[in-house]
Amino acid sequence: MNRRSGLIWFVVILIVSQAIFIGSFILVLQGLAGGLAWLLLTIASILEIIVIAAAAFRMIWNPLAAEFPEQELSRHASRRSFQSFSWGIVNMGLSINASTDDQYLHLEPIMIWRALGARSASIPFTAMRVTDRGRSVKINGTLLRGPKWCFEQASAQAD
């Protein structure tokens, strides 16, 4: 699946899940079906989060990450947990364990996101073009935003 078709399918899934959620919300507001409507709304809310996250990872995040398979991490790498990144339209706020070594920026989604299908990536600094005062880079035309410390090596190579 290419990035464009992944985005289209993601939007379709988003619309369908929103229709189910809004339908159950209207039932609750109208007082129809009593406790059953509340149960439906609760289940719809939880399922909506799971479906939207899994769809976003599989259809948008993973095609971006697929170009950069996970590489072995150097034991001298700098590491920080729960970092915020956005890649394309997928925002991974406080949910990436990031590491840098001499060659790569390693992005590992937190365990819950990996369980829902998000893949790790090791992006070579040579594939990055630094923008926005060092807080973002362009990778094959797609913007990756994150903490400044993650792109220092890319900035050094650009100089």
Description:
- The protein is of the alpha+beta class and 159 residues long.
- 45% of the residues lie in helices and 27% in strands.
- The protein has helices at residues 3-30, 34-65, 111-115, 152-158, and strands at residues 78-87, 90-100, 104-109, 121-124, 128-131, 136-139, 142-145.
- Strands 4-3-2-1-7-6-5 form a 7-stranded antiparallel β-sheet.
- The chain is elongated, with a radius of gyration of 19 Å.
Short description:
With 159 residues, the chain is an alpha+beta fold. Helix content is 45%, strand content 27%. The protein starts with a helix and ends with a helix.
Secondary structure blueprint with pairings:
Elements lengths: L2 H28 L3 H32 L12 E10 L2 E11 L3 E6 L1 H5 L5 E4 L3 E4 L4 E4 L2 E4 L6 H7 L1
Antiparallel strand pairs: 1-2, 1-7, 2-3, 3-4, 5-6, 6-7
